[in-house]
Structure formats: C-alpha cells, structure tokens
Amino acid sequence: MNTPITTYLQEKLTEVGTAGFEQLAADTGVKVSFIRKFFYGGRKDPRVNTIQPLLDHFQAQERTKGRRRPTPSAAQPKEQAHG
C-alpha cells in the first residue's frame, strides 16, 4: 500500500459516509466517537491498535469485491466456430 494509512482510512470513511458510521462501529468494534473524531480531523495520529480493526474491515471488503469481479473471458461468451 503506497497510500499513507490515515489517507486510506479517510478515503474509505468518505465512501462509507457519516450515515454508515454506526454500522461500521458495530462491524469493527471501534467506537463511533473515535470514527467521527478521526473523520473530522480530531485524531491526526491514532494508535495502530485503534485503527487496525478498520483497516482489516476495509481490506477484507476489497478482497471480497476482487473475487466478485468477473474476468473478461467469463463476462463475454466465446464465439462459436461454425463450419
């Protein structure tokens, strides 16, 4: 990952949106108050053990999305040879 962890988390939290913070907190065990503070810039240098569940959650989502993408050959039917 070439993107700084805090930048990556900011991007992911933006994708989730503030309306999704409660569910994210429930899914990860990270307090919603921390998620909000981090999102709004109140926690510039959080501890790794605090943000690790968020990182694990978002990386697991990316792996799952990666598996669902059809390969180009699977997405398009192969041409049949006619003879």
What oligomeric state do the depicted chains represent?
A: single chain
- Strand residue percentage: under 5%
Q: pLDDT average, as an integer?
A: 85
Radius of gyration: 18 Å
- Give the biggest beta sheet: none
Number of helical stretches of at least 4 residues: 5
What overall form do the CA principal axes indicate?
A: globular
User: What is the helix content?
Assistant: 55-70%
Could you please describe the fold and organization of this structure?
With about 80 residues, the chain is mainly alpha-helical. The longest helix has 21 residues. It is globular.
Short overview:
Helix content is 64%, strand content 0%.
Helices and strands, with pairings:
Blueprint: H1 5-16, H2 21-28, H3 32-39, H4 48-68, H5 72-75
